[in-house]
Specification:
single chain; binds iron/sulfur cluster; 17% strand; 12-stranded mixed sheet; 14 strands; binds S-adenosylmethionine; two-stranded antiparallel ribbon
Length: 332
């Protein structure tokens, strides 16, 4: 390993860091968490705000990371979020800073987050129908999510990108409604195939709404043509809607894996480096840090963890084993 960057044995370089700030959530999306919730990580095991910013600094200064996305669980539930964003925006080089959120509470937090230096948000919204929302997320919070989306746009956290997961028999019958509404308001929508990362281990390949199906359904109402701007390392295949400039993304994480172009590295809320969402191994930076490791020692551990990144997620291999942690505890 000669490079200082986060390279792996397959030639990929990770420059995009996802940091989970909590495993807790105020929704219970069926593809992520059971209705009764999960045993949450104990408080002392979570990185403190200062520890989060220190690791972000190590990534920026020593590992050539250039983008940080905070996620969870629900990151808006993290009391120190504004402070963490503020600290991250003071790093040099300055990372691009974004947040993946269900937007509940964003109506109040969008302005302070923008003032603290947040650049953008990715908001998850699977339906515009209150009954479907409740069926999917076990909570009646659609109005809060919608208010959060509006507040994000008003605060300049743009482009506002929206993520939607389709679940067969619940919200898959009219995906064009979400698309048309998104285009009307200037939001960038991406549909994501459901992955085997639910805590309940109920993912079923036969039930998954595939990228091809989503494409077919949208095509019944709109003409979709390939976006000439190539997808690069971005996972979404983007399509021009009715000739453009409007676009829609479809992320075929399972049926069209993009692992060969992956540029992600992940840090869990309790300070474990994961080279992939589907890793079955983690590298503990929290205990190293609390035992007095220097910045360069932390960077080295991080490099070693990424060097061993597997070439692909293996979901389509019959020997595939779901990781022990669910999506909410990894950071999506
Ligand atoms: N709570 C925030 C949210 O929902 O945006 C951030 C964390 S959530 C785990 C991040 C993203 O992961 C969301 O867009 C969610 O839809 C997606 N997600 C969760 N479980 C998934 C699964 N099994 N398959 C595909 N996407 C999933
Ligand atoms: Fe919460 Fe996000 Fe998981 Fe839904 S997908 S339960 S909002 S962490």
């Amino acid at each position: 390993m000669t490079s200082v960057a986060l390279v792996d044995q397959h030639g990929r370089v990770a420059t995009d860091l996802r940091i989970s700030l909590t495993d807790r959530c105020n929704l219970r999306c069926t593809y992520c968490m059971p209705p009764e919730g999960l045993p949450w990580l104990p408080g002392p095991s979570l990185l403190t705000d200062d520890e989060v910013v220190r690791l972000a600094r190590v990534a920026m200064e020593r590992l050539d990371v250039n983008e940080i996305r905070y996620t969870g669980g629900e990151p808006l539930l993290r009391p120190g979020l504004v402070k963490i964003i503020e600290g991250s925006s003071e790093l040099r080089p300055r990372p691009r800073l974004s947040l993946t959120t269900n937007a509940i509470g964003l109506a109040r937090l969008a302005e302070p987050l923008a003032a603290a230096g947040l650049d953008r948000v990715n908001i998850s919204i699977d339906t515009l129908d209150e009954a479907e929302f409740e069926k999917l997320a076990y909570r009646r919070r659609l109005a809060d999510t919608l208010a959060g989306i509006r507040a994000a746009a008003a605060a300049g956290l743009t482009p506002v990108k929206l993520n939607a997961v389709l679940i067969r028999g619940v919200n898959d019958s009219h995906p064009e409604r979400l698309l048309e509404w998104s285009l009307e308001h200037g939001y960038e929508l991406r549909f994501i195939e459901q992955m085997p990362l639910d805590a309940q281990h109920q993912w079923d390949r036969e039930q998954m709404v595939t990228a091809d199906e989503i494409f077919e359904k949208l095509s019944q109402r709109h003409e979709l043509t390939p976006d000439p701007e190539h997808r690069g390392s971005a996972p979404a295949e983007t399509w021009l809607v009715d000739g453009g400039p409007a676009k829609v993304g479809i992320i075929g994480s399972v049926t069209r894996p993009f692992c060969g172009a992956c540029d992600r590295t992940r840090l869990t809320a309790d300070g474990q480096v994961r080279s992939c969402l589907f890793s079955r191994e983690e590298s503990d930076l929290r205990e190293a840090m609390r035992s007095g490791a220097s910045d360069e020692e932390l960077a080295d551990r991080w490099r070693v963890a990424m060097w061993g990144k597997l070439p692909g997620h293996g979901i389509n291999d019959p020997r595939f084993l779901q990781p022990a942690r669910p999506m909410s505890a990894i950071g999506g």
